[in-house]
Amino acid sequence: MSAGAEAVVIGASAGAVDALSAVLPALPKGYPLPVMVVVHLPPDKKSVMAELFRGKCAVDVREADDKEPLTGGTVYFAPPDYHLLVEPDRRLSLSSEEQVHFSRPSVDVLFESAADAFGPGLVGVVLTGANADGARGLRAVLAAGGTGLVQTPTTAAAAAMPLAALAAHPAARALTLDQIAAHLRELGGTS
Predict the structure, then answer these.
(1) Which positions, given as ranges, span the membrane (predicted)?
(2) Does the pLDDT value for residue 1 go beyond 50?
(3) Which string of DSSP letters, residue by residue, matches 136-172?
(4) Which residues contact 9 (CB under 8 A, 6 or more apart)?
């Protein structure tokens, strides 16, 4: 599989808190990979995602800052109303460009920019959600030689995002949340 994993990107929407609660707290202290997460959020409210998961996780959890260099063992949440991107030098950047799938932040935008930066070292994970955001981005991850994981649609609170991702990319692996968590631990050499 992707023994040379260098980074993980995760996208989720409706049902995200429960899904991420099964995945992120499973990452152990000392987990070597940076993890970037886009959750569709209301643009006009402060996000509590980083705060919420900081208390549940052994890894560092924060809201992403513009031009911040990526660090292993850290989960970066996209802030509300900003796209989260990875620059070619593997720094994060924030953008207020047009919405994608009626969303900013957009899963596709993160996945596509991270695929350009990390190529075959990227692991893309599409979780529960009620639209098709993430399907195009997962195509970019797989086209760059990366790994695609998708929450089994029957286990998702909202199956549209996983279904769209799997329909567009039969090469992606459909896994339960526990299997995704175990796979991410394994990729980080911490199974």
Answers:
(1) none
(2) no
(3) HHHHHHHHTT-EEEEE-GGGSSS-HHHHHHHHH-TTS
(4) 35, 36, 37, 38, 110, 111, 114, 122, 123, 124, 125, 137, 141
Residue boundaries of the structural domains of the chain: 8-187
Question: Beta-carbon neighbour count of residue 98 at 10 Å?
Answer: 9
pLDDT digits (tens, 9 = 90+) for 6-58: 999 999 999 999 999 999 999 999 999 999 999 988 878 788 899 999 999 99
Helix axes 135-143, 107-118, angle to 10 degrees: 10
The pLDDT of residue 2: 40
**Model pTM?**
0.95
* Residues labelled as active-site residues: 13, 40, 133
